Amino acid sequence: MQVMLSVLVVVAVGAASADHGTVSVRESELRELAATLTSPAFKGRYTGTTAYSNCAKWVASKFREWGVEPAVKGQYLQPFPAPHTIVKEMALDLYLPDASAGSDRVVALRPGADFLPLLFTDSGDKTAPVAFVGWGVDAPELGYSDYADIDVTNRFVLCIRGLPDYADQRFWRHDYHIARMATARRRGAAGLVYLSDSVAANPNGQLIPGFLSAAISTPAANELLRLAGEDCAGLREKLEQSGRPNSFLIDAQMHLHVAADYYADGRGYNVIGLIRGSESELENECVVVCAHLDACGTHGGLTFWGALDNASGSAVVMSTAHELAQMTTRPRRSILFVLFGGEEMGLLGSRHFVDHLPPPFRKVTCMINIDTVGWGAATDVLFHSEFPWLGATAKAADEGKDVLRHFWPSNQVTPRSSDFGPFLAKRIPYINFFATDHYAHYHQTGDKAENIDFPHLLKLTDVISTVVRQLANID
Ligand SMILES: [Zn+2]
């Protein structure tokens, strides 16, 4: 009920907005949907929480209202396991030796601005010396180790997220957070701290008992690195250019405090709506139009609203479902509209979905994914390189609209793949829409609906709607 009230309020605000002149019905719908998804009631849509479940139920209620059928045994919600951690308290202090003062200089970092715990860290309170370990990669099988000549026992290890050679796919398995944490733990480290250009919320990993993890900003990291005559940019350049490890101890201490609750039995949901196809020979086939609904939640008083990532894509999927539910002629093939949970935790919802297609569906003709759109100059398109008709269909739909910029064919699953990854792994044709330009508020508290370019999102929704209708009708 509370949710319905907030929707009404949002409608009024959208209609009264003078900044955008006359707003079409569909643009105001996109605005309302994004505003509701990012409203305080849903607390940043963290998979496994009550707030996320309420959000999933709200999406289902919209599907029902619009005449989009439930797909799973009469249910819109498809549950899956979603163990997760909520951070309640966080603090990070640097103790920097100061010869002139004869004592340590203490720098208390600001939560959300200078540092964040990784959102799968264990709780703990540790003060320990620091070491820099390059990319944090230990790959003796490839003749490379950032840990070869250094003892990091009971130290916090600082590292940059990256690889000595990204072109060499054999390194990719070392680029997952889980792998990097496990390596640091095996080497005896007290915890792992990423050096980040910007501090971003990150729930994509697994709790390791007794192990702490965090990310700190470049300026904060440079306070430490300066003691060794280095800085982040210089170290990254050296690592990239030499292709060799460059690890060293730092004469400073770090204090990291995290109080977090771990929910091993958390349960997440995908929301699945259906528009039934007309051809009985194709009754086992479907086109999947999807976006991840989840974001990074609320931790220690900081809410990661997840507006561009990915209330924007969720709004596009919902609005397209609303539009296509009103078609008088049914598409030849069924269309499943799916809002995935658990994407930010490591593609939990999409992995579950591809292994548990709702009956009678056995074949996904193609999946159309929308993740982080409505920002910057344009939208880019990534699509399965073995199915060039995907790119061609999008290009044709964009004719005269000009919202799509680059077309990237790819058939490789990488550690940075979004929800299309599990589909690609099964060789299902996929096409993925995402913002051309780097998003400044990525996984930060500033990712708010006001940053979404709704006129662009409107045009993009039209293009995607055309793509969906064509793909649902192809031979
Ligand atoms: Zn995303």
Account of the protein in words:
The chain folds into two domains: 2-82 and 267-473, 3-Layer(aba) Sandwich (Aminopeptidase); 85-262, Glucose Oxidase, domain 1 (3-Layer(bba) Sandwich), CATH 3.50.30.30. Helix content is 28%, strand content 28%. It contains eleven helices and 21 strands. It has helices spanning 2-16, 25-37, 50-66, 177-186, 218-225, 232-242, 307-325, 348-355, 389-397, 420-424, 454-473, and strands spanning 69-70, 77-81, 84-98, 103-108, 115-117, 124-132, 138-139, 144-145, 156-160, 191-196, 212-217, 248-263, 267-275, 285-292, 297-299, 302-304, 334-340, 363-370, 379-383, 404-409, 430-435. The strands form four sheets. Strands 1, 2, 13, 14, 17, 18, 19, 20 and 21 form a nine-stranded mixed β-sheet that branches. Helix 2 (25-37) crosses helix 7 and helix 3 (50-66) packs parallel to helix 7 (307-325). The model is unreliable at 1-20 (pLDDT under 50). Zinc ion binds at residues 292, 309-310, 343, 371-372, 418.
Please provide a brief summary of the model.
The chain is of the alpha/beta class. It has eleven helices and 21 strands. The strands form four sheets. Strands 1, 2, 13, 14, 17, 18, 19, 20 and 21 form a nine-stranded mixed sheet that branches.
